[in-house]
Amino acid sequence: MFAKEHGIHLQKLILVIGIFIALQAIMGGLARERAFQYYVRIYLLIEINIILTASLSFINGHTGQFSLGHAGFMAIGAYSSVMITTVLPRLIMGSALNTGSWESHAIFIFSIFIGGGAAGLFGLIIGFPSLRLRGDYLAIVTLAAGEVIRALLRFSDFLGGPRGIPGIPKFAGCVYIGLFFMLSIWIMRNIVFSHFSRGYIAVRDNELAASCMGINTTFQKVSAFIVGAFFAGIAGGLFAHMSQYINPDNFGFLKTLDILIFLYVGGSRTLAGCIVGAGLFTLVPEGLRLVNIENWRMVIYPLGLIVVMRFRMNGIMGSREFGFLTPWKYKEMLLKRGKP
Amino acid sequence: MSSYLFQQLLNGIQLGTIYALIALGYTMVYGIVKLINFAHADIFMVGAYVAFFLVAYLSGTSGSVPVQLCVWPSVVLGYLALGSLSEGTPFAKSFFGSFDRRRQSAPTGWSRAAISFAKSVAQMLLIMLLAGVFSPILYLFTRTFFKPPLNLFSIPVIIVYVMGVCALLGIAMEKIAYRPLRHKPRISALITAMGVSFFLENFCSLDIVFGNKYQAFPTLVQKHDVIRFAGSGVAISNIFIINMSVLACMLFLLWIIVEKTLIGKQMRAVAFDHTTASLMGIDVDKTISITFMIGPALAGVSGILYAMNYGILQSPFLGFYPGLKAFIAAVLGGIGSLPGAVLGAFLMGATEVFANSIDSNLGFAAAFVVLIVILLIKPTGILGKKEIDKV
Q1: Model ipTM?
Q2: Which of A152, A283, A320, A321 has its Cβ near the most Cβ atoms within 10 Å?
Q3: Over the stretch B114-137, which tens digit does the pLDDT of each residue have?
């Protein structure tokens, strides 16, 4: 049934993956030239921002909670992975891991997952207030939690305090960020279209009704925080190993505001919205540098934000999803119902 | 030791007065339109800068009236004048979209956006024209009514001036950014508020506006201790007394407005229920505009106090952390409750000062820890009303 549509779907999927790999290869090639490193860096930042935005969409978009502490999760991920690749090796061996040997690459991949896991654990801790608080009170508690994480990082001499950690080995280039990006998007897509994720949407639409229908709202809400925090942690680890220097103030409230803007400008309920929002609003401030006169670009950028929110309240993509991100099973179900 | 703690408590209350005046605006706006107005912190900043330029003029250091005091307020004035002029005539009403109430239900899309863009360009040109008319008037007004010698009695004058500018800015902000989104999802208004906040910060840090550099705020009153408790070393400075009395005046005025006047009654009604209030013949739009006038005016006063207490204006980004803390204070006291905002602000100030006296890195976190603890014990804040879930 629907063999033709399935063929078109597969063709599109392969085409998009092919374009992505080609883009990745081009960027990997350009990264060797000093003149293009700025552009490659923006490209990598876009990928990291997309992971971050998509991870926030689990908490804010799908489950309908309102978290303002996302940069805190990112900080946990970044500091945990940097602890494994830089701080502990410096204590034990006297220097950070070198990027030459394959063992250190294995440790790096492991450390990214550890970073994600540690952030997920914090997500669990911060998810619990969501059971008791709602709306703006929850928002402000998550904000406070994020700022407490930042303040504790400033306070800890072991992790460099306010000075931060310089000299992190540059593991995360085009290859690793591309791989982790694809992996994260793939996993997040599978979660979004799973049976389990319908529970998130039920909680968002009406918590009371959802619990009456037998959905474990406690589990749904806390798990949204854990999933969101996990991927934010991964993005944080990648960010640290890309920029080679982190300090606690990288992960302040302003970073959270950036992620929120990406999310709501794109459209908070779909991965397509996250990709468009993060892509566009990372590119726009950088692109405006070309026509920059006396920092007017930072005046134009918020005006663009206001205009977009004025005319597209649900974000640029609204509730539309990219065709290639929709699983075939889901499409088939819609086709059977007669809704293409 | 106890006298040391007492002195720190006094310092905390002194800081709390600044937070209290910002928090009042947050809580009023939240109570009426259920919007976290992130741009409120930047109005606080505008208040501080306007006070700075006015004081620079009054103390004679800037020579003539600074351009900043005439041009930018007159742009805002021009916008508001255009709005109220076009309200009367149907043609102008259809032309100046943002004042037209019918547009709220009109279809939106990119073609519509293009037309609106063209309209707003025309609108902007007209505003510039009107601003060109207003700025000489404002210049003459400031020259005639504000005469240079600076003394203790010029503080009320500065306060009134700054309150006026900030109130105008508040109304304009509500009309441009928030009114079109009134009946839309709350989150889009929130993101717009962030946009307005970023806009004000970055726009004000341009060299032609306020400039992004440190400005030393001239000393209005020489700090000296008025009351000194013998033996303990605890002292109350005149700055403390000025802060407290300004706060008391503002609270008294606010109390009169909210509890004793018709407009206050309307505000309370709108905060309770928009639809029912409009059925009772209350002009909801006007009431919300007035709320957006009172809140920013209080934030402006807070800006003056901030500038007086710290004596330095770092950059137009200075409003961010005081604003954040004031917002948290409003939540702590129970958002939507005016006494709660003041109480929360004092608590916030005291916590911050105590924690800072232990370690300067701790000050920021301690306030947040207190917030988390209080909200987990009492989820709607100290004086907040309990919400009942209805099925």
Answers
A1: 0.84
A2: A321
A3: 777 777 778 778 888 888 888 888
